[in-house]
Design goal:
The chain has 207 residues and is of the alpha/beta class. It has one domain: TIM Barrel, CATH 3.20.20. Helix content is 31%, strand content 18%. The chain contains seven helices and nine strands, in the order ββββαβαβααβααβαβ. A seven-stranded mixed β-sheet has the order 1-2-5-6-7-8-9. The protein has a two-stranded antiparallel ribbon with strand order 3-4. α2 links the parallel β5 and β6. The longest helix has 14 residues. 35% of the residues are buried.
Length: 207
Amino acid sequence: MERIKKSPSEEEMPDTLTYEVFRTLYINITNECSANCIFCIRHIADGVYGYNLRLSKEPSEEDIIYKLETLDLQKYKEVVFTGFGEPTCRLNMLLFLIKWIQERGGTIRLDTNGHAALMHPGRNVVAQLKEAGLHAVSVSLNAESEEKYVRLCNPLFSGAYQALIDFSINSVKAGIQTRMTVVGHADIDIDACQRIAVGIGATFKVR
């Protein structure tokens, strides 16, 4: 893949586009999201681990590549698309970057709410992610029922809960390492959520 030539200055793009924690590189490509979870960190902080993740504008592919070209991607145990927004909101950019990183030897994970099929109807998002080179996905389950999910996560789309279940099932079938997660919230039945994840064939984590 041809290298992108543009080199924006720090003054042009001062936002936190990448950040490092425990030998993991995180990439923050958007603040857009298709949900408004009541426990989202955005409601109480500007970021995590001392990094401000609020973007002054949506970065371009060139902005991200410029940052990544200064790094040795193979030194990280994982490169993770996450941040203050839902990465699949910018699906075409995400696919481009996954392929670019994979070609340079990075191991890539996507943290997602699993709404991609609703945001991009007619596209086989999981197949496209697999083809681009995605190794692992972490899907935010966050509730053991649709009713509770809607109440806690306030998704923009109807059918969002089933969409994230389907996304997880399809990821497992595609051979993408799949994990489902929940927030340790008093209103969530952790054991029931774990049964859902294990039944799909995914691993499970309380975060």
